[in-house]
Amino acid sequence: MSGLRLLAIHAHPDDEASKGAATLARYAAEGNRVMVLTCTGGERGDILNPAMEKPGIKENMTAVRREEMAEAVRALGVEHVWLGYEDSGLPQGDPLPPLPEGCFALEDVRDVTREMVAVIRDFRPHVIITYDENGGYPHPDHLQVHAASMHAWEKAGDAGFAPDRGEPWSPLKLYYTHGFIRQRMELFHNELVREGRPSPYAPMLERWERNRADIMARVTTQVECAEYFDNRDDSLRAHATQIDPAGAFFGTPVDVQRKLWPTEEFELAKTRVTTSLPEDDLFAGIDRE
If pLDDT is split at 50, 70 and 90, which confidence band does 2 have? Predict the structure, then answer.
C-alpha cells in the first residue's frame, strides 16, 4: 500500500494520541503519508498528571504542550501542522461561564473552514478523520472541529470557495473516530476483576450505564492495528501534562489488549467512492496510485 494520504483533524494536542493513534501509526509505517492537524495549542489545558505539578509547567503551558506534541508525532511517525487557534478551555459550573474572548469555539465557523480548506488543498488527503456531531464528547472545541471539518469536506473541492486558499481538492472519504467504546472497556474491566485487581474503568462504565450510549452500533470500520499499540502508548506518554501513567489509558497491559481488542473503531460518515460495509481499511474503495 503506498501513495495514499490521510488527514486526522483534532482539537488539542493529545487528542491524536487518545483517538485512533495506532491506526495513524500503522498507515504511516505502511508507506502512506499521514498528517495530524491540531486546531488549538491546548493553552488552557489543566495539568492532569500529578508528576507534572511542578514549577514552570503551568506558566509555560503553550511551550510545554508544543514540545509534547512534537514528541508524540515522532512516536507515531506522522506529519503535523498547527491551525493556530487558541484553546477555549472546558467551562465548568452551573450555569456555565462564558467562553474566553478570542478562543477557537467562538471563531466564525466560515473562517475556520477557510483555514482547514487551505490545509486540505495543500496536503490533498484521500481520507479525513474528524469528530462526530457530539465532538466525541461535548467540549466546545471538539464541536467546532466537527462543524468546520464538515464544511471543509464540502468546500475543499469547490473552485468558487476561497480561491486564494489553493487549488481545489475533493477528499474521497470522511470518518468519525470513536475512541471510547463501552464494550472494549467492559472486556478490560472484567479481565481485571477476574484477576482480582482494581479496575480503573469502573467510573466510565457507570457513566455509560447511565447514558445508555452504544457507539459501537455506529461503527462501520475496524482497523487492525495491535502491532502499533506501543506507538500509541508512547504518544500518550509524550503528553505528560495531560496523561497520568496511573490512569485508565494504561490500566490493561498491551499484550492483553492485543488479545482482547486488537482494533480501533471508526464510522464512515461521508464517501465519494463505493465501498462495502463493514470495512477493515480506511482506504477501502480508493484506487492505489
Answer: low
Is the confidence at residue 1, as pLDDT, over 70?
A: no
Domain of 119, in residue numbers: 5-180+215-271
Asked if residue 126 is part of any domain, the answer here is: yes
Q: In what order do the strands lie in the sheet with 79-85?
A: 79-85, 33-40, 5-10, 127-130, 173-178, 263-271, 221-224
Other Cβ atoms less than 10 A from the Cβ of 212: the count is: 7
Question: pLDDT digit string (tens) for 7-31?
Answer: 999 999 999 999 999 999 999 999 9
Whole-model pTM? 0.95
Q: What is the CATH number of the domain that holds 267?
A: 3.40.50.10320
Task: Check whether 274 has a pLDDT greater than 90.
Answer: yes
CA angle, residues 183, 136, 84, in degrees to nearest 5:
145
Other C-beta atoms closer than 10 Å to the C-beta of 205 total: 16
The residue assigned the cell 499521514 is 34
In a domain, 289, yes or no: no
pLDDT tens by residue, 132-169: 999 888 899 999 999 999 999 999 999 999 999 999 99
**CA–CA distance, 78 with 213 (Å, rounded to integer):** 32
State the total domains in the chain. 1
Asked if residue 210 has pLDDT above 70, the reply is: no
Residue 194 domain-assigned?
no
